[in-house]
Amino acid sequence: MAAEQNSDHLSSNSAPRGRLWTLAAGIAVFAAILASVWFYLWPRLSGEPPSRNADLRLAAASPAAVDGWERMVNGKDDFYVDPQPVLTAADVATFRISYDGTVPVLGLNLRKNGAKKLREFAGEHVDEHVALVINGSLVSCPVLQNDSGGRVDFPLGEQSRDDVQEILARLTQ
How many alpha carbons lie under 13 Å from residue 14 in its C-beta half-sphere? Predict the structure, then answer.
């Protein structure tokens, strides 16, 4: 009889402790899931970070010849691109491709210092061309409309899906 009472006493003490350990393990797993979402998934929702080795630059551009600027071709249009970049890959936090109808658009989310540089540049160059150069190739050369804050979009024209994938690959290598 004493053995039965003793075993009942042990099982009633271990049940709350087992529930507590189960609860603690569940909270730990939940915290690990939240941490992975916060540190890995959440930043990627706004886009993919460019590689530190990515050769990306934004620079002033003009359809008219400018001494000291490099002549580049975008489709059938010639542009002259300032060799001094306004922004580089170091100024870009993330990038992402979206579509405006059927036209792919490369969106660049800028770091704080990149956004500041772009604001200063846009203040002096509104309604002028800005070139997006990746790996030495002119990818897009739209007219800078206004201060876009921390984001700038570049329409990629009539690029094929393979060309868009190549641009993305260049940015992540």
Answer: 6
